Predict the structure.
Amino acid sequence: MLDILISDITFLNTVTLILFPLLLFISYHSLQNLLILNHIPSPPLYALTKWRLAFSDYSGTRTRTIHALHTKYSPIIRIGPREISFSRLSALRTIYGAGSGFERTSFYRMFDVYGTQNLFTFASVAAHSQRKKLLTYPYSKSVILKEGAARAVEMKVWEFMRLLEREPEVGREIFRSLHYYALDSITEFLYGEFGRTKALGEKGDSDRDRRMISDILDPKRRKLAWFACHLPRYTGFLMSRTGITEKVVEALGLLPQTKPTVYTGIRKHALEAWGAFKAAPKVEKEDKGATNIIGRLWESHMSNKKRVEGGLSDLEIASEAADHLLAGVDTTSDTLMFLIWALSLPENSEYQEKLIEEVNAKLLASDLDSRGIPTAEATGKLEYLDAVLKETLRLYAPLPASEPRCLPTDCVIDGVRVPAGTVVSMSPYTLHRNPDVFLDPLLFNPERWLGDLEDVAEMKKWFWAFSSGGRMCIGIQ
């Protein structure tokens, strides 16, 4: 009996010796986390661990949770051991203004394509600026209106209307059909004849292209994004398994999303489009690729090749093109979906009626193309339409979440000392719901943008659907 007691005591001592240093380390680390930003308002759990906010992220409430914390505590709140969220214009200018020096965090690397960085994922300000110079020209408003891009969009609008007439069941699935429209419009702009899709086309012709976006509809896509963001090594390990190990992982249900995962069709399509462009005769490249994105990347590839061995690689060009497509499909279709939904609500019927009145009153026969579709130039004079679109982007921003940045040196933001390496962020969701700027911010009211000029000017300062500074959305036009 005594031997058993001594054995138990020895075991407990051994366990204590093992656990005590671990508990001491955890306690020290937690205390350090608490103290390093203890001058920033925050509930204790958020200061102690990143997993409190990660839990909200998993449940799909991260952005709303941060907004609620701002409402309860302060315009400046701590949302992680080394992460701060801001919600005032003064902070916006400091963090995101041109020349601020703040760089994107490793969070964005989950958007690399083929393991290759692109305009969206570059952390370095210099690398981003260099790549952006290559792409600014075809995205400029003057080029879009003059070089055929606007005419192509008008054609896609007509094809979308024909789809609704031809396949009413697809039209009723507005989320899906708007994705077809966005896919066809953007591939036309990116690739032209070298990779345009026909998702809006007749059955049979459109089947392959419609399947390209089927994984967008998979609800597990968000689950995979969560794992890639919060457990990148674990996710990478699981997704890279092959053979027997892969079968075991799948059998145990450990994969966030079954392989192949998100956007495989779009990523494959980007490589195929670049391959088709690359194989085309030089004269055809120069003639038909002058104003599309893949043509601009090819020009850079050839000019850089004279100075630097290789220029842009095949994967760099395909990664860039695929990223623009990935970025454009969801944002375009989601914005249109929310606009249509908001106008369809009974309480918003007056806005729909006024929009119809404006179109009937201001658009002349000369403002329509041969198919009866309003031209891009003509829509520029529809002020009420612009207000409806702005209000949709304000209340239902397609990318409403935080946009994280960091600086390798200590700095001061909005009067608060921020240690080097701290992640700082702001979100359109919170900026667009400031009741001091937007009266009744949760109310869909396009006419707020047609009111007093001073009020409208102030709202425009807070309008952040396209971000701002050097990193603002290149596709704003």
User: Anything to note?
Assistant: The radius of gyration is 26 Å.
